[in-house]
Amino acid sequence: MTPEAILFFVFGGLAVLGALNLILQRHPIHSALSLILVMASLAVLYLLLGAEFIAAIQVIVYAGAIMVLFVFVIMLLNAGEEERTNLSRTAKYLGVPLGGLLLIELAYLVYWGSPHTVVQPDRFVGRTGLVGELLFKDFVLPFELTSILILIAILGAIVLAKKEL
Amino acid sequence: MTDWITGHPALLVTILKIVVMLFLLLTAVAYAVWFERKLIAHIQSRWGPYRVGPHGLLQPLADGLKFFFKEDIMLGTVTSRFIYLLAPFLAVTLALLAVAVVPFGPGEFSLFGTRSGLYIADINIGVLFILAVTSLGVYSIALAGWSSNSKYPLIGGLRSSAQMISYELALTFSVIGVLLLGGSLSLRELIAAQAGHWGGVVPRWFLFPQFVAFVCFFVSSVAEANRLPFDLPEAETELVAGFHTEYSSIKFAMFFIAEYAHLFTASFLVTILFLGGWLSPFPETGAWAATHFLPPVVTAGLAVVFFRGVFRLREMWHRALMGVIGLGLLAVAGLLLAQPALLEVVQGPFWFLGKTALLLFCMIWIRGTLPRFRYDQLMAFGWKFLVPVAVLNVVVTSFLVAWQGRG
């Protein structure tokens, strides 16, 4: 096995384990930490694909900023352990089948659906400009729409917070 | 085994560099503590450490031993043993990791048949790597505060998270201006972009065109390192010791090491982004070429300072120690003069570490001079002043760069 393959399996495995732990842990802080592990492992996987910039941004934005807010809120509310309950009726009759369907769909796409595209690892290496070009030329509409969405979310948060005062 | 080693010379060189770097950095951290205590003491008209060795020079060694032999207490009331133990480990690992990408000089050397430079790793996204690693540092403080299951650490941890989130924005935005001018995310290329002099005298460092960004960056990195006047997470007058109140012995020392390593990382980053990294502030041409001999001259000057101690100190072994260190420094100065190739390699690290030492001095000076912020002042300063100014700097810089047609 090449070093890249070993790294892929180690960090891919870590990501899956972290994701499982995230669901199975009963304490919110442990779940949040597992999510950070997932984010960091994903960053390493991006790095293996040659997308250094995306990997760094993944760590800075998700692990470094968003998850800090999660941990902050959990600490501030001093959230205790969750109680285990049985599956609700909606979850049992709607959630489980839909989840299964999604899994089958993913498996189908991975094995038979999409043609195997080979990623060219050299395309993005050290060329942050390419990311910017894609973002502001080819995908400018989704980019701007996302910005407006986030702006609305911020306004909503301010309105909700003001109501409390 | 030997086959494997000879087959991977690059790996061997890297491991060797990591070991040397760790040793140097940890020693530097220990002596930064000594330097800080000494400097603060003199600012406050005290003597500072004076008992252990001449001028307290062996104090860091004594402190280190003390940390190892103190009783390691872990209360049974901690929320989670795993997280309680993870926090100091995370702190020290992340703080040391950031130094991996710092280039100390342009020089290259040959070892075991592979060429390598004065850095551990040279990656294309050095700036982002350091920002990413330092942004993760907040977890160690937040988790230490939370897992201690005690009031003061929890308040310290909460304050730290809020402060880090606030000042990280200003920190990142103030870097963007430099990146726009430098046109790269690689630390080596950013330094290379600052080469040359305006009018043959003023160095083309980003400090001058990006002065606003420099101020924002410096202030935010002091805040990120949780130091006075931003040390609310461990404000000793209100929170006992803040987030590390419940830690003792070597676990406390790990937080201590992490804090000072952060100080070094911050100084390294300011040096690289704004002060031209390893570049000399003087032009190469004409009479300025004499500045090439500054490293041996400064070393010899230091030797003279140590020799003064030989005649002034009271205890015999203090005198002897000062004499030996002085002779050692003199020997280094002589070696640099005798070996022009060595002098060439030393130029980069000399200026780099010189600038770092200057910034370190400034940070300690700030600590000795300014009182602590109130919490609301801290938040208002970060969000209402630093962030808008940093964003404005990005806008103005991008317009200027686009106008000059460089972008």
Beta-strand percentage range of chain A: under 5%
Q: State the distance separating the first and last CA atoms of chain A.
A: 60 Å
Mean pLDDT of chain A: 82
Report helical residue fraction of chain A: over 70%
CA distance, first residue to last residue of chain B:
51 Å
Largest sheet of chain B: 2 strands, antiparallel
Characterization of this structure:
The complex is a heterodimer of chains A (165) and B (407). Chain A is mostly helical and 165 residues long. Chain A folds into two domains: 1-81 and 113-122, NADH-ubiquinone/plastoquinone oxidoreductase chain 6, subunit NuoJ (Four Helix Bundle (Hemerythrin (Met), subunit A), Up-down Bundle), CATH 1.20.120.1200; 127-165. Chain A has helices at 3-24, 28-48, 52-77, 89-113, 128-138, 140-164. Chain A is globular, with a radius of gyration of 20 Å. Chain B is an all-alpha fold. Chain B is globular. Chain B has a domain at 60-279 and 384-403. In chain B, the strands form two sheets. Chain B has a two-stranded antiparallel sheet. Chain B has a two-stranded antiparallel ribbon with strand order 3-4. Classes of the chains: A mainly alpha (165), B mainly alpha (407). Chain A binds chain B through residues 27, 29-30, 33, 36, 52-53, 56-57, 59-60, 63-65, 68-69, 71-72, 75-76, 125-126, 128, and chain B through 80, 83, 123-125, 128-129, 131-132, 135-136, 138-139, 142-143, 145-146, 154, 157-158, 161-162, 164-165, 168, 172, 185-186.
